[in-house]
Amino acid sequence: MEKIGIYRKKIELSEKFFFFLSEDDFSSGNSLNSALSLLKELGSSYYLEEARRLKKEKDTLARRAQPLVFVRHHWKVAFLSEFRNDTHGIIKYYTAAYGYLRDVPKEYFQEVKIIADYTNLKLCTIFLRKYGVPEAVGQFQRHMKNYKHLYSILPYESEHWGWVSRQYQVLGELLQEYAPTTLW
Questions:
Q1: How far apart are CA 83 and CA 6, in angstroms?
Q2: Which residue range(s) make up the domain with 77?
Q3: Which of 44, 51, 62, 87 is placed for a possible disulfide with 80 were both Cys, Cβ 3.0 to 4.6 Å?
Q4: pLDDT of the residue at 17
Q5: Last residue of some domain: 55, 84, 104?
Q6: pLDDT one-digit tens code per residue, 56-95
Q7: Rounded distance, CA 66 to CA 104, Å?
Q8: For the chain, what is the domain count?
Q9: 50 burial class (0-12, 13-18, 19+ CB within 10 angstroms)?
Q10: What backbone phi and psi angles, to 5 degrees, belong to 65?
Q11: What is the band of 166 on the pLDDT scale with cuts at 50, 70, 90?
């Protein structure tokens, strides 16, 4: 134990990052529960610090000059919020990323559509789990309003309508999976 303390001080780690379990601890289960809660706390603090670092880095970016990077940073912060079960942060940053996709130049239209598609999926899933069907359907309707009639940019109109069809199929699958069965 003393050697571990010396090494811990050399590499400048806090005591809270270390815990020891004996054979007796495995039989009681109490120490395992405290170890589990400690690991959850450490994981949550790591994701919180990483999100703070990304927010500071984002402040140095020019939204109009680097719109895809700006979207990417919001996506990362939303993703990190998912690990912490921070519903407010998840919705805030995915919605912001979705909104900033409008600033991306037209030559990246296919990439924008893919990112918007996946962001919409994430938002609809979160709304269905936390708030219910009306919120999810509202998000989906906003998504379709933004992207349904943009086929003139694509070289093949049929490809676009196939994509639109897939959007409705995915919403149907989400509703089937997450919506309460009392609605059917």
A1: 33
A2: 40-104
A3: 51
A4: 67
A5: 104
A6: 887 777 767 788 888 998 999 999 999 888 999 999 999 9
A7: 8
A8: 2
A9: middle
A10: -80, -30
A11: very high
Q: Is the pLDDT of residue 35 over 90?
A: no
The answer to whether residue 176 is domain-embedded is yes
Q: Could you tell me which of 84, 96, 94, 155 has the C-alpha nearest to residue 127?
A: 94
Closest CA to 119 of 134, 103, 98: 98
Q: How many CA atoms lie within 13 A of 110 on its CB side?
A: 4
Query: pTM of this prediction?
Result: 0.77
Same domain, 135 and 172: yes
Q: Considering the domain boundaries, does residue 4 fall inside one?
A: no
Whether residues 147 and 123 share a domain: the answer is yes
Inside any domain, residue 86:
yes
| Per-residue confidence (pLDDT) for residue 28, from 0 to 100 | 65
Does 93 lie in the same domain as 115? no
CA 61 to chain centroid? 21
The tokens for 14 are 């806090």
Among 80, 104, 128, which residue terminates a domain? 104
